[in-house]
Structures are given as C-alpha cells and as structure tokens.
Design a protein that fits this description.
The chain folds into two domains: 6-170, Beta-Lactamase (2-Layer Sandwich), CATH 3.30.450; 171-225, Arc Repressor Mutant, subunit A (Orthogonal Bundle), CATH 1.10.10. Helices cover 57% and strands 14% of the residues. The chain has helices at residues 6-19, 26-40, 66-78, 82-88, 105-113, 146-193, 197-211, 215-225; strands at 46-53, 57-61, 92-95, 118-124, 131-138. A five-stranded antiparallel beta sheet has the order 2-1-5-4-3, with helices on both faces. Helix 2 (26-40) packs antiparallel against helix 6 (146-193), helix 6 crosses helix 7 (197-211) and helix 6 crosses helix 8 (215-225). The relative contact order is 0.12. The model has no long low-confidence stretch (mean pLDDT 83).
C-alpha cells in the first residue's frame, strides 16, 4: 500500500517516543525499539539490531526471538547479507521475496530454510566506530510496503540516538574518572616532592610521554603507589 496516513503515522511515532522518555538503560531502550518494530511495522514477525564494531565484531542486540540473532550469525560467518549491507553501505536494504534474491546466496539459503521470505534492514547513523542496522523479518513474501519503510526508518533513528547517548555517557564517566585520578596524582606528587600544581602536572605529562602510557594510566599508577615518599 503506497498511500498511507502520514499524519496518523506522525502521531503514532510521537506516542512511542514519549513512552521512552523516562530514564532507562540502553538494553531496555533497544528492546523497546525492536518490539515496536514488530508491533507497528505491517507484516513484521521478528526484529533485532545488529552492530558491527572493531575487527568485524558482530553483535545481535534486543532480538524479539532467536531467529534474527541466528541469521545475524549467518551474516557474520559469511560477511554478507541485508543487515551487513545496510549497516555498512546502505540506508534501507529490502528484499521482498528471498526466493528470487541473488545478492546474498549463503544468507538467503539459510533464511529461506528458516521460513523467512521478506527482509528489511535500516541503517543506524551512530557517527561512531560502531555501525549497525535495525533488521525486520517476515515469514511471508512482499510483507513490507512504503508504510513499513517509513516506520522502520523512524525506529532506526530512535535506536541510533539511544546508542549515541549511551556512548557519550560512557565517555563522560571515563573522563570524570580520569580527571579525578589526575587530580589525586597531582596532589600526591605535590606533597611527595614539595612542588606546585603546575610542576606536578608537568611531571605526570613527562612520565606519560617518556613511557608512552596514557596520562590517566600514569596517574592511576601514582595513586596506587600511595603517598609514601620512600616509594
């Protein structure tokens, strides 16, 4: 169906967004996204979020059942499939009938054996070293239409925002811990060597440069040694 109620879709997605405004952890938010994909996308039977990070580390997040995670493992094994293509190269990657699909032969064979006939994958724009896609599966051919794609794109945006926010929170916590360690190490060096704050910080940075160890790690070692001058 190509003609659908855009206004109604906007109201529905606004309601979904409001339901996620209370503080929650990333896992709960992503489960809410994948469950919403099954509940709201016409034709959807299951969903999950695939992320790819580092040296091709594949991770299936918030699957609504075992099937999406199993097919993610297939894609990780062969390095191909709609989820991988959407996460790395595409925006929306869709196959309306896997019986006639030629792009990902290994994935397609195992997906069909699992009963899957339609796939839609929506890229997550995380702007980090992690790429990902919201993946929606259907057990019938030609399950997804323009309305399905519109809803999937909005839900993928919600998932990306949640991942970005979680990443920033982790970075902020790490920065605060590093700042506290550096402050403690400076104080210990000031007391141990009777120097000022600037000199203590210079000592830390010089140790970091000469040992090729991050400043926060040097500070952590200084703190671990404690204030004993003899050490």
């Amino acid at each position: 169906m190509n003609d659908f109620d855009h206004a109604g879709l906007g109201v529905m997605m606004a309601e979904v967004a409001r339901s996620w405004t209370s503080p929650t952890d990333l896992d709960s938010t992503l489960h809410a996204v994948t469950q919403a994909a099954v509940d709201l996308i016409p034709g959807a039977d299951s969903a999950d979020i695939l992320t790819i990070s580092g040296h091709h580390k594949f991770q299936s997040l918030a699957p609504t059942c075992a099937l999406p995670a199993d097919l993610d493992a297939v894609q990780a094994r062969h390095g191909q499939g709609p989820c991988v293509e959407a996460a790395v190269d595409g925006e929306v990657v869709r196959s309306d009938d896997l019986e006639n699909e030629t792009r990902w032969p290994e994935f397609t064979r195992e997906a069909i054996d699992s009963g899957v006939r339609s796939v839609a994958s929506f890229r997550l724009y995380t702007r980090t070293h992690v790429v990902g896609a919201l993946n929606v599966l259907a057990m019938t051919a030609h399950a997804f239409d323009d309305e399905s794609v519109a809803i999937g794109e909005v839900l993928a945006a919600h998932a990306a925002i949640a991942i970005i926010a979680d990443r920033r929170e982790v970075q902020l916590r790490s920065a605060l811990v590093s700042r506290d360690l550096i402050g403690q190490a400076k104080g210990m060096l000031m007391e141990r060597f009777d120097v000022g704050a600037d000199q203590a910080f210079t000592m830390l940075t010089k140790l970091s440069q000469e040992s090729n160890i991050p400043l926060a790690k040097v500070a952590e070692r200084v703190v671990d040694l404690g204030p004993d001058r003899r050490r």
